[in-house]
What does this fold into?
Amino acid sequence: MKMLCVAACLVLLVAAAHGCVNAPPRCALVKMESWGWKFFSKPLLPAAWITSVSVEKDFSGGYCKPASGYGFSTNELWVAHGCRGLLKVCAVANKCVTKTLNSNNYAFASEQIENACYVSSMEIKTRQGPPCVADVNYGFTGPYVWVNGGCRAEFTVCYVQ
It folds into this structure.
């Protein structure tokens, strides 16, 4: 469990160190099932930034083990290798805004999201011009969103205060 929390917990610790006031994570029980040892995932976007996941009840006879049977990314819960169970998922609620960003003349441009402690996701809503590729010519770091290389688009940006 400790390893699964590293990325999300690190972000929360950095945010706290920078004076961000985060609401405490809220938890809920989610039934997840990996039938036939297949991978199954459930996105929780744009509503949440997952901070931890634990097994409340294992219906699979011990297959729900951290990192191999279940886990999470920042906004997605997953199970695999026969894990079937009731998982306790804790997450911080996101707020989302629509933001238009333009890389005019292929130049880098960035903008801070008002009231954001950190951005948790950024998805293209509509695009004009050259392709926009995540982490290549658009992305986010902390409370900032950026574009480069001619990317011009309207984005849905979700963040934690």
